[in-house]
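Ex. 9. Protein: Glycine/betaine ABC transporter substrate-binding protein.
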Amino acid sequence: GFVFYCYAPHYNWFVFDMVQLEEPPYDPAKYTMVNPNEDPEWFEKSSITVGAQDKSIHVGYSKSLETRAPMVAEFLKNIAMDVDTVNEFTNEIVVKQRDGQEVAREWIAANSDRVDGWLGL
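Predicted structure tokens for Glycine/betaine ABC transporter substrate-binding protein:
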């Protein structure tokens, strides 16, 4: 075996039998990362002894969409997917080389209640 870094969502979680190592929970007092572009002594000044803070992925759209097509903007604002779902999408599209629209159609058909919630139905 070996140890390497892999973020999620990523299709590697489907391709390989990976196990996520347990880390101490995120604590901002124990997570100091200095950007190398900001300080030449970034490495000496950085200290990370805990897991990273969870990240979020957001759907971006033009602010003008809120007036041009408010229902579309509301739909996009409501979209929320968990890491496992995005991992599944990337596996189907990148690894299995399936058409993204086909994968999306199948997922929508199997998750119509969730999509209806995004649509406010």
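Check your answer against this statement. Strands lie at 31-32, 47-48.
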